[in-house]
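During the first year of the project, the team set up a workflow for recording each protein of interest as an amino acid sequence followed immediately by a discrete structure-token representation. This format lets reviewers and collaborators read both layers of information side by side without switching files. As required by the reporting guidelines, we include two representative entries from the current panel. The first entry is reproduced here exactly as it appears in our internal archive.
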Amino acid sequence: QVQLGESGGGLVQAGGSLRLSCAASGGTFGSYEMGWFRQAPGKEREFVAVISRYGRTSYYADSVKGRFTISRDNARNTVFLQMNSLKPEDTAVYYCAARLPSSGALTAMKYEYTYWGQGTQVTVSS
């Protein structure tokens, strides 16, 4: 059983930056593929980014590519999401998620993730 806890959300002006963190406990962190998702009011939860178990590969949603960077520190059991050039449409609750990968392919499908954090609010003002 893995417990996940996000932090680092807040209110920022458009064009600003935030760095989200997700700390994991209760499992072997390096065994898990880690993803970030977000959910805006009235919308479905959507994929943002995913990183492989050892951080060698990553994949991003088109909407954040070039602005967001996912990384991980397995020694600290933490995954990060650096968000730059933020836009009002990035406003959402951001969730981290973990899964034990069954193949080498990264996945953006939320139903494939087993463990979820409680989320952290990111609000970008125009």
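The second entry, processed by the same pipeline in the following quarter, appears below.
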Amino acid sequence: QVQLVESGGGLVQAGGSLRLSCAASGRTFSSYAMGWFRRAPGKEREFVAVISSRGRTTYRTDSVKGRFTISRDNAGNTVYLQMHSLTPEDTAVYYCACAASVIWDTPTAPDAYADWGQGTQVTVSS
């Protein structure tokens, strides 16, 4: 099991930036892909971005391409989500998650993830 703690959320004006962090402890962090998801009010949980175990491969959902970047520091057991050009549509609770198996390189389905953080709120004002 991996314990995940997100931080870095907050209130920002449209066009602004935030960097989310997710600190991990527990099973070998560097062996697993890490993902970011979000849930906006009244909406289903949505995949945002994923990074492979060694950080060589990343994938982002279309709505954040060119604005969000996912990265990881395996020595520090932390994964990041750098967000630029934020819009009110990005308002959501953001969750980091650790893949359930080492065989998945960049999974996008929530079911592929075994451990989840408690979430951090991102609010973008217009």
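For the second entry, the following points were noted during internal review. The longest strand covers residues 18-26. The mean pLDDT is 96. Both points are flagged for discussion at the upcoming steering committee meeting.
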